[in-house]
């Protein structure tokens, strides 16, 4: 029954968004059907349904990994021996979606947009998450995060901000990010945190 699990809820939302506008690409209907009826995975499939069913199955596995681990599958790591093959495959699948976005049908794009696990630009997502966490800490405590060894999360935020300041000083910070760092600097001065070292 739709709506009984997160996947069904996402599939229903994606179908509603997809049906809002005419879509001349016949592939979208096949991907929507595969997403709606995941039973394709366990039963004989018509030839034109295999690829959509495999794609939906891969997306479902990617989202399941995210739900179970609290993070997305890694695509790479400095020590490849620590990256299990299954996780690398899931991460590689996501990288492939980003790389070949223009080849995806509209339903696939909508479904990826709705996925809580998938990000089109993971690095920008992480940067914005750190920005929000730093700002929240500043507004909540009235002081900037310190390089405090007793609190790993605070330590990581302080290091992140110091790296952003270094990039800002050497002119390596993109304008949008530089503007956001300026917001944090202004908040630091209004909360009395400007004299505190990170």
From TrEMBL:
Region (Disordered): 1-52
Positions with biased composition (Basic and acidic residues): 1-41
Protein name as annotated: Helicase-associated domain-containing protein
Recorded superkingdom: Bacteria
